[in-house]
Amino acid sequence: MDPLPPSPVNWDSLDALVLDFVRSDRLIAPPASPSPPSSPSSSTTTATSSSPSTSTSSSYCSRILIRRARRALEAGDVDAALALLRAHAPAALLDHRLLFHLHKQRFVELVRRGTEADREAALDCLRTALAPCALDAYPEAYEEFKHILLVLIYDQDDQSSPVVNEWSIKRRFELAGLLSSILRAHLQAYDPILSMSLRYLISIHKVFCSRQGVSSPISDLTERLLFEDRDPPAVTQECSVEAPPFDEVDVQALAHAVELTRQGAIDSLKFAKGDLYQAFQNELCRMKMDLSLLDKLVHEYCIYRGIVQGCSHALPGTADMQCSQNIDVSFINNQGANNEAQLDCESAGKQDGGCCTSDITHHDSWSKRLRRVRSSTSGQGRRKRWRGRADDLNYAFETPVDANRDTLSPAFDMDEDVVIGEHDSVLDTGLSDTRNMQDQKYEVILEMRDLTRKGMASKVVDEINSIDPDFFSQNPILLFQLKQVEFLKLVAGGDHVAALKVASAHLGPLAASNQALLKPLKETLVTLIQLNEDVLTKAVSLPVLASSLQLAISRRLGIEEPQLMKIVRTTLHTHTEWFKLQMCKDRFDHFLKIDSLKEIDPPVSRTMSKVLTDECGNGSSQITTCSSGKVLDEGSSPQESSEVVCDESAILKVMEFLALPRADAIQLLIQYSGNAETVIQQIFS
Question: Is there a single domain that holds both residue 165 and residue 276?
């Protein structure tokens, strides 16, 4: 198992981004009836609606339109793409540059078909569409028009012809990508924030690993998820060669954020009329992702976190991912911003080798526990059904959407949310024993997590001991944390005598066997003199503890964490290290909600995070060494040796004149006492 990097992750913030993603792309089935305004689902939607990517009905329809038009062009059906644009985005055809490209490809495809009727249609296309459009599309268009006429006399199999590139199938995909870029900006049909954040984080991760000479432990995932090639950039219709006076800070920020040349960044800003963040979105969405793989990763994460039902209750034709039974999603965002802070490290260490799950998973206590869970949650747990992606354009444009919920209307012909109660027969539908056992595991794990979020630590300890008496011997730090919560609740309630009994019976012995726990024990005991009812919430993060407990129990039962968690954890770490190298703050981290994924916890939680990291021996980054021998350690910065403070204008000047990354520009300035002119003279001398 890969070691965990030290960077904390706020899984609640990731939950919110994932929920926004599945709602924006309508990957979950709609509810049977609108929820009351005060319902948890409504509050969650409201909380995420301020995101710049939160989709309206129009944005969702536009993204489907773009995908449909793209597929039509890739298949060579230009007529279908034009019909879609005329019906749903006629304003896009006012771009004569785009229209010329479409008619030119239509002409080639008609000739390619080879029938007499198609040849006549091709000539008609020349006369009525292509020639008129070539007159005012752009300066080079008429020359391109004359050149494309050669398609009429050179065979498509002739590899030595002057129009071999025009015959190439690759032209279809280039045009499809260009159309996607133009429509996306024209219709403001940007992908959800989760999708753009992953593109950004993974691209930085790849660059960081390449430049620092380290190998990536998630390369098998990132290579499949984010492709190397990109869609062509959208271009402005005007032909002015003079660039507007953009702020050089914006130009350099955009260029290095999405790996553009300086001129490429200027062109992108021109197309976005100087709007840096719109240009940034345009460039991010040019990066091609495997959407089906992303859906699978999100589905797996949703099952693990209890956002949607597992495969036992998935709709026909959905992704074949982990199967589970899921609990109410109302916890999302209720606790505010809290991060995971590496509290799951304890469960990833030495105990795995000595843990046998077979006795646990088939123990009678699991069946008894499940009956108690089903009885206690009867009529309460509402689960979302996974719908999967269905790019039905007719449906998208005809189905009304409740703007307050941003989910499908009840008119959608899918099963409604289901309340799993004591008498429901969901687990008794003929599924295999293995599937039922998996469902039982998840139901118990998620209930333990939710009880921990509510601060019911004593009950959690009792329940887990009844299920698996050996669990806390394998996870003593989790036991310390739960007893810590129990202690703090008693202190907050004024029962200091009972609190001291908990400390004497549990916290003291645990700290005696682990010296690293002495400091958090002392910090916990200090709360005895703090007469504050909020002592619990200020001292410990319950969502952090709940996530750690969930991960520990899951691994104890042989359930691995979702791959999306591994990607986010690792790429957030390299994002932090990358901007240490750049010696600046990320201009786009707030826009992409990356800052919320890194938010810190209360002081005691941070102390416990350090304890867990030291205990597991996983203090180093998940980035592993390669032939160069480089490896990153927690808190270290590859730029620590720099003593010269460089002026920002000097950094920008060196970056601009020498076309260098920020880190390289800073290194050169350090060598020459921060003098930009000296650096430039030395390079060109």
Answer: no
C-alpha–C-alpha distance, residues 353 and 332, integer Å: 33
Whether residues 107 and 221 fall in one domain: no
What is the DSSP pairing of strand 401-402 with strand 226-230? unpaired
Question: What's the confidence (pLDDT) of residue 90?
Answer: 93
Could you give the CA distance from residue 650 to residue 541 in angstroms, rounded to a whole number? 43
pLDDT tens, position by position, 348-392? 343 443 444 444 544 555 555 555 544 444 333 456 888 888 766
With H, G, I as helix, E, B as strand and everything else as coil, classify residue 203: helix
Is 680 within a domain? yes
Token pair, residue 202, equals 């993974």
| 547 CB-near residues (< 8 Å, 6+ apart) | 11, 340, 343, 344, 449
Q: Which of 172, 187, 202 is the last residue of a domain?
A: 187
Residues 386 and 251 in one domain: yes
Whether residues 30 and 174 fall in one domain: no
Percent pLDDT > 90 in the chain is 45
The reply to whether 1 falls in a domain is no
Structural contact between residues 527 and 535, judged by C-beta atoms closer than 8 angstroms: yes
**Best CA proximity match to 250, nearest among 275, 233, 272, 271:** 275
Among 281, 297, 288, which Cα is nearest to 227's? 288
For residues 141 and 148, what is the distance between their CA atoms, to the nearest angstrom? 10
Question: Are 263 and 315 in a shared domain?
Answer: yes
Q: How many CB atoms lie within 10 A of CB 36?
A: 8
Mean pLDDT of the chain: 76
Q: Quick check: is 624 in a domain?
A: no
Query: Is residue 278 domain-shared with residue 218, that is, in the same domain?
Result: yes
Strand bridging mode 382-383 / 226-230: unpaired
Same structural domain, 289 and 205: yes
What is the C-alpha to C-alpha distance for residues 283 and 306, in angstroms, rounded to an integer?
33
Residue 657 CA to its chain's centroid (Å): 35
Report yes or no: 666 and 643 within 8 Å, Cβ to Cβ: no
Q: Are residues 40 and 124 in the same domain?
A: no
HSE-up (13 A, CA, CB side) for residue 564: 24
Query: Domain boundary at 187, 210, 227, which?
Result: 187
Q: How far apart are CA 235 and CA 269, in angstroms?
A: 10
For 287-303, what is the mean pLDDT? 94
Span 4-59, pLDDT tens digits: 345 678 999 999 999 999 999 999 887 654 444 433 333 333 333 334 444 446 78
* Spatial contact of 170 and 227, defined as CB atoms under 8 Å apart: no
Query: Quick check: 98 and 89 in contact, CB under 8 A?
Result: no
Residue 568: its H or E element: helix 563-582
Chain length of the chain: 685
Establish how many alpha carbons lie within 13 A of residue 529's alpha carbon, considering only the half-sphere containing its beta carbon: 4
Domain count, the chain: 3
Q: Flag whether 35 is in a domain.
A: yes
Q: How far apart are CA 309 and CA 296, in angstroms?
A: 14
Expressed as residue numbers, the domain containing 671 is 648-684
Segment (H or E) for 228:
strand 226-230
Q: Which two tokens stand for residue 189?
A: 């049909």
C-beta separation of 663 from 581 below 8 A: yes
Instruction: Tell me the whole-structure pTM to 2 decimals.
Output: 0.77
Q: Which residue has the tokens 């799950």?
A: 357
Q: Which H, E and C letters describe 157-222, residue by residue?
A: CCCCCCCHHHHCCHHHHHHHHHHHHHHHHHHCCCCCHHHHHHHHHHHHHHHHHHHHCCECCCHHHH
Alpha-carbon gap, residue 495 to 492, rounded angstroms? 8
DSSP tag of 650? H
